[in-house]
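Quick one, tokens below:
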């Protein structure tokens, strides 16, 4: 890698560089979680549209529709907060708060979405060889990487209490 161009983060040393890398990682994981959740939801929608129970597709049931709608709103919340954090970073703006917000949504809402995707598949969602189970595992792994939602929220609260929101 000799001679490979690189971009210096912050001043390149100390806590500023660490904060920049942490914000970039949180933003990237949130963006990845948005894709994992979208995939899980798409599989659930496809499954419930063709799977019939009592002579009707599962997707015609109100409870199924509400669960899928909640998962869709959570997925979009993850996506929009990840986009906001990425945009702020690309624009050279302070993105620490936005990255924490995206990480919180990806952790908390991501967990709900992949659980919903698996739940809407019924018994097949628990099959270790079914693709929706891979979405479930990947979503939970990203949740673990991002950290516990309560800790992220406490960190965001401390950051907001320090000064004016940027």
């Amino acid at each position: 890698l000799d001679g490979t161009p690189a971009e210096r983060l912050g001043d390149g040393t100390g806590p500023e560089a660490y904060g920049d890398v942490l914000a970039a990682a949180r933003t990237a994981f949130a963006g990845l979680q948005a894709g994992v959740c979208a995939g899980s939801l798409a599989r659930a929608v496809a499954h419930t549209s063709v799977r019939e129970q009592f002579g009707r597709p599962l997707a015609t049931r109100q409870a199924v529709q509400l669960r899928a709608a909640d998962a869709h709103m959570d997925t979009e919340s993850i996506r929009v907060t990840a986009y906001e954090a990425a945009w702020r970073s690309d624009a050279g703006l302070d993105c620490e708060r936005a990255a924490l917000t995206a990480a919180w949504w990806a952790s908390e809402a991501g967990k709900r979405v992949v659980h919903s995707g698996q739940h809407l598949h019924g018994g097949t969602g628990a099959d270790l060889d079914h693709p929706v189970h891979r979405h479930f595992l990947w979503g939970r792994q990203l949740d673990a990487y991002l950290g516990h939602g309560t800790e992220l929220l406490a960190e965001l609260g401390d950051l907001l209490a320090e000064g004016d929101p940027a």
